[in-house]
Structures
1.
Amino acid sequence: MARLTTQFICQSCGSVSPKWMGKCSDCGEWNTLIEEVVETGKKKVDSIHQNRISATPAQKPSTLAEIPRKEGERMQTAFAEFNRVMGGGIMKGSLILLGGDPGIGKSTLMMQVAGFLESGKETILYVSAEESVHQVRGRAERLGLEKAPVLLLAETNLNEILVHARNIRPALLIIDSIQTVYLPDISSAPGSVSQVRECTSAIMTLAKSEHITTFITGHVTKDGSIAGPRVLEHLVDTVLQFEGDRNHHFRILRSLKNRFGSTNEIGVFDMNSRGLKEILNPSEIFLSEFSQGITGSVISVTMEGTRPILLELQALVTNCNYGFPQRNTNGFDQRRMTMLLAVLEKRLGVPMGTQDVFLNVASGLKIDDPAADLGVCTAILASFREWSVARDVVFIGEIGLGGEIRSVSAIDQRLSECAKLGFKRIVAPKSSLKEADLPAGIEVIAVTHIQDVFRQMEDWLAGISM
Ligand code: TYD
Ligand code: MG
């Protein structure tokens, strides 16, 4: 007979423990165990299986060649950026999770995707489990989409939602959000680990059995993972993350997992009073505020997925007045910067131990491409020495612990993006340039060690300002 008992589930890895512990014994994270009431005493899965085994299975395996290719399987939206991040459109019948901080614009993006489906004829069911239909209509009106063929439903009971979806059979189903819907059969509260997991798997069954393309939205927790267990990410086909600084108007859509396309692709959007607008040339926008004459600012180019993006790196180096030197970064890994500071100190003899160092990736982008190392080091050096770097120079290169400048990926794309935007001089690792296609009209300066850069720095300055 079924019985209710209490157990503790780790929010980070999903492992179950019979008693509360400060630290998860599986993943080692602290304070992630959450109490939940679950049903126990159900029939053992094994015995259920034993009864159902049949000698003639319904399906037989086929060879790869026997399986026909399917074309026209993707839906296009009017957002080229969105299509690209999805791997060339939304794969029909897939389940996609859109994660992001509260208030970042998930509901807005979903409404715009629904309103801008290219065919414009298919039925879309938008289920809001957070807002009333009036609120959703108000948003659609603001976005100029009040005439879009979208059916609205404000409902939190997932069983009801599934019945509606089966009856309507929409081309696109949007459930906003996974943390506010619930299955009445599960006793824990909406948003709890077991609710989120069971709801997602019920939605997955619907998406696959009825071939309904489904989006679910989800809030992310403080540490950046999608609330609820990590298992959620394994359940769905695609995980998109919508990020950005709420004080900035840029929003970045990133694909973290994609069964139907490459990951690490990003799409850049601008949030204005009439919703999201895609930015097709992010480099131009990110550099628009770069002004020559400021010390400690340099331009570098980072690869985001398959796309090169030029951006401005700003450093501020000041005398340390409070004993322990500050190291602060925004948009760049702090530990990596600390390592680069040690390289500058050891290989160039720059006394970083007595300086506070602040680093900012302008425009709110977060980068983890090591090719930005050289840009970071030059920005720090430039701020320390009060140098203002010329506006037409770009710095590319990974820096090793010996101060050597190591090769970077996708050098051709990086160089051609720089040439396209009118940059004249590019400082790049010698080892990368051997087989590179050098675009016409630009001077490429090959460097092998951070000392080479330091020696030639004067050539690339706009003037010494104080
Ligand atoms: P929303 O889509 O509700 O965020 P989420 O679903 O991720 O919680 O968007 C919330 C923010 O976006 C809100 O602060 C207002 C802003 N916004 C605009 O700036 N312009 C717009 O056209 C819309 C609809 C929202
Ligand atoms: Mg919302």
2.
Amino acid sequence: MNQETAVGVIGAGTMGSGIAQVAATDGHRVSVFDSNADARSGAQARIHKILGRLAEKGRLDRESAKAIGERIVFVPDLQGFGDCGFVIEAVVERLDVKTAVFAEVESVVADDCVLATNTSSLSIAAISAACSKPERVIGAHFFNPAPLMPLVEIVPGLTTSEAVVHATRALIDDWGKTTVVAKDTAGFIVNRVARPFYGEALRILEEGIADVATIDWAMKEFGGFRMGPFELMDFIGNDVNYKVTETVFAAFFYDPRYKPSFAQKRLVEAGWLGRKSGRGFYDYREGAPHPQPKKDDAVGREILMRILVMLINEAADALFWQVASRDDIDLAMTKGVNYPRGLLRWADDTGLDEVLDRLGRLFAEYGEDRYRPSPLLRRMAAKGKTFYS
Ligand code: NAI
């Protein structure tokens, strides 16, 4: 595949329109289909507005912006996808809808057309199984907003051919993205490894160890994270974030490490979804007071370390289970969710003995499986090894 390859995008919502813009910016002709005509016209207007704004700010010259817009064509059915060499699906997160879409697209495209899915939680194996040529089906998981977030997780399914993995990665690298390869397991890399950032923060809150503002302050002040966990959950939307946690929890056969929290569940039930609803962990309504953190450095550092060792444990376990390589795990967290450092690098800097000691103390205190250290951490510490040595 190269710049001449015609690209098809199915689903013109948040992700589909962003991906169409990325492909067209790289020079591809892009056909976009959405079963909802309003979604098609909405996406078209959104893309033109974004391109216009980029031109105004001088980030794109006017001619390029115009050319990018003209390369994206919105089509009323999948018949227009006949010449596509690469199709990416970003329709609603439902297996029945995705498999029906792929069955239809397979009847239109040539045999060598690659079919990618942007799913964040369904298995690539399940989606591929519904296709007549499962070897050409692959996951390509973009992050929101697709034009701005550099990371794309490339997820081969059980049946995906090596050639398709290679070609897809090369194509998306050409789009200026940072690609990592992840095993077809729940949450891939980012949505799995990031869980304790929310889960352990919620746990600290629920136990009354610290309040929302103090936990957020600790993570930013001592960890260098751009946003605290509660600010981020409110930004993502508590409904969306809670759903991901619940999905990952179920997909791991209810491993207690991923257990959702009542605090967040109640927020969702109350409709306190975060910024978008005006209220979440924080109150965003006009004139509402913003709670101040209790700035005690010793408490702040304890909070950071408790969440950090859980994140490191998750990253180490992802490596242990061969979800991805060491470098890809670290790259995914810095490029996909803006972590200040890769977690395995951070583990080395912290010292594996220190990480294990803290996990061991949590495990002893609570007696919960949630705090069990990854076998890989133990193995490496016992041998005096580090992740980067
Ligand atoms: P969205 O709700 O904004 O857009 C989905 C679009 O699919 C809608 O416009 C809808 O009309 C269309 N659609 C539904 N059924 C269809 C069909 N049979 N044929 C054609 N179009 C159809 O959803 P969003 O957020 O863009 O998500 C799309 C996919 O991307 C999902 O699989 C989601 O899990 C995944 N994803 C979402 C991210 C996010 O932050 N929103 C991040 C990464 C992946």
3.
Amino acid sequence: MGVIIKGKPVADAITLALKKDVEDLKLKNITPTIKIVRVGEREDDISYEKAALKRMEKCGIECNVLTLSEDISQNKLIEELNKINEDNAVHGILLFRPLPKHIDENIVKYIIKPEKDIDCFHPINTAKVMEGEKSGFPPCTPSAAIELLKHYGIELKGKKAVVVGRSMVVGKPLAMMLLKEDATVTICHSKTENLSEITSKADILIGAVGKSKMITKDYIKNEAVIIDVGINVDEEGNLSGDVNTEDCLEKSSYITPVPSGVGSVTTAILAKHVVKACRLIIDE
Ligand code: NDP
């Protein structure tokens, strides 16, 4: 029978350590500060923003939100981002994505300064993830999955890890981060043939697909560790992951729930990145 491993103890441990760090910085008259930039009123963005505000408050981090109209021009958005880049009181910037369709993310991704880009939008930070270079900012969700595995003492070195999903936000960077931890990594996607044959060889299986309860016990190996990154709404309107948790529980060794799994750790990682960005600036 598997053990359900929740995100809260992981987020609490990170928050506790950060509070101390933030207190130390405040003694030097520096308040770590994040600026959240939201374009439009997407429900997902607003709910993440609320969770982020709560987490920053718990850590003692200053958090300001800049809300911009959905029809803002690309040039005006760039102008706003440049202003924040130049604001020495702001250490980290989170810009919600996807941006409205009339804005070209391939242009905007170069605007936020890499040293303030705390959720890996700028290609320099993406390159650092690929290189396994720790000075950058990997994306918060894959980092949350790694942090969770480490918190529960799950060995990664030499293990077969299979990541289902290859997006730039979750699947690909997470695969690179598992590789950095010396796992042997396979990436699957929508064109993968015989998916269950591949996933059922995984010691560690990551679901980052966006398909409610797609991964059932037929996809997993006995005693596998199952990390569910998916956040979906099932037929009954409830939040669900990519993994059918009830079905897989018996066969797994450890399994993360949805909600209360990886998602609960993400804002704690965001807070950690604000403090890291702040320290990078003062150590310059
Ligand atoms: P994307 O839609 O960008 O990517 C989904 C990936 O899954 C693609 O690589 C796609 O393959 C692959 N895929 C789709 N269908 C199948 C299938 N039937 N079999 C195998 N692979 C498939 O999603 P994201 O990466 O942005 O997000 C993935 C999930 O993680 C979502 O549920 C999202 O809500 C959640 N999420 C959770 C966060 C958190 O904090 N916990 C934060 C961000 C996302 P292909 O490339 O071939 O199209």
4.
Amino acid sequence: MSKQKTAVITGAGQGIGKGIAKRLADDGFAVVLSDINEEVLNSTIDEFKEQNIRVASFVGNVANPEDQKALVRTAVDHFGSVDVFINNAGIEQVSPILDIQPSDLEKLFQVNVFGVVYGIQAAAEQMKKQENGGKIINACSIAGHQSFTMLGAYCATKFAVRSLTQTAAQELAKYKITVNAYCPGIVGTSMWDRIDTAMVKYMGLQKGEAFKKFAEGIALGRTQEPEDVAKFVSYLASSDSDYMTGQSVIIDGGIVFN
Ligand code: NAD
């Protein structure tokens, strides 16, 4: 890389976002990590600094458009540009459709859908100013291609992310901004710990059994690590993906086949 590029990653305090941030730092990016959870964010920032990674941090809520703008400003203030913006932050909700509560639905859509819109807007405004294109990358899921029982509202938010990825790609192509999404399968993060805890309650199973049950259907025979996702996001963030836009690509070890 001639001039060091900057990648911003939301929900990067732990899990998939942290894995992506580490991989992009290894690829040569300066990285800006954001999370609503200050504690996990600070601990990851300390870890990255110990590894001499060029990193900045921002505590914020993706569902707040002002926070998204401030995140972009933080990146520009520290490193001069935003070249890659990853809308990774997301939350889950487990419930049969008949039990979904309005407050859960609102929170889920605010973070997973509104948050992605505000992230795309904040990133694209900056990238347009830079006149050098850019890459916006969204966290979708296999749940954005196929719906699963007890995850109805979550799946609806991920279908929405796939839709937003397609529209943003078409509208932003004239600025040489590409918009794509990664669609993981079953990644052993704190999100899946919570999904498992909620599901086993409904299904009358023991802790860990819902995760195991889902994992049994994976063709490649193992659940996913954040690094498996990060390897693909590394491609999406690189110039190798310059001719690709509007796609939400499944990387799940073989669960959903499209
Ligand atoms: P995680 O819960 O382990 O980590 C998510 C991080 O996002 C947390 O640090 C959390 O504090 C942060 N966050 C939550 N709400 C936020 C908000 N409003 N603003 C800013 N940060 C916020 O989750 P994960 O498993 O790493 O998932 C990351 C993304 O990947 C999510 O969008 C998720 O839907 C998607 N995904 C996960 C899986 C999986 O199996 N874990 C599969 C497919 C897609």
